[in-house]
User: Fold tRNA-specific adenosine deaminase from Pueribacillus theae.
Amino acid sequence: MDKNKDGYWMGLAIEQAKKAEKIGEVPIGAVLVKDGEVISAGYNLRETEQRASSHAEMLAIDTACRKLGTWRLTDCTLYVTLEPCVMCAGAIVMARVDRVVFGAHDPKGGCAGSLMNLLNEERFNHCSEVVTGVRAEECSTLLRDFFRKLREGKKTKKMEAEDR
Assistant:
């Protein structure tokens, strides 16, 4: 796949999401790209670290800032498998990320177009270009399958407890 295409970079974010899934985390992944190079990557670690801020985007942004030695991530594109939440959208704006590309929409918590669009709020001192739906079906399927397995596991445990 062409490295100049959003689908290529989203594929790397999907790989990050699969790392989260392997350790029982919600499968969300992110990569931050500058000048055709991955600067940082992250995947959800909220359950592992028991920290509300351990979202894929937050971890990728934090790592990129340390790596580049600046909090300003201009000329960067963030690829994330799920539409950013309010916390992550705020961090994206504060870090001055120029472009955000996401796969699946989040109708219950998305703040890049679903519930609201903080990334294009003109009252802030920075706006990000937003591209949606890149490899959306793959991203959605990862999440849907994860939550289905989680529900099935809970149902099985409940039935086993009732049998005792």
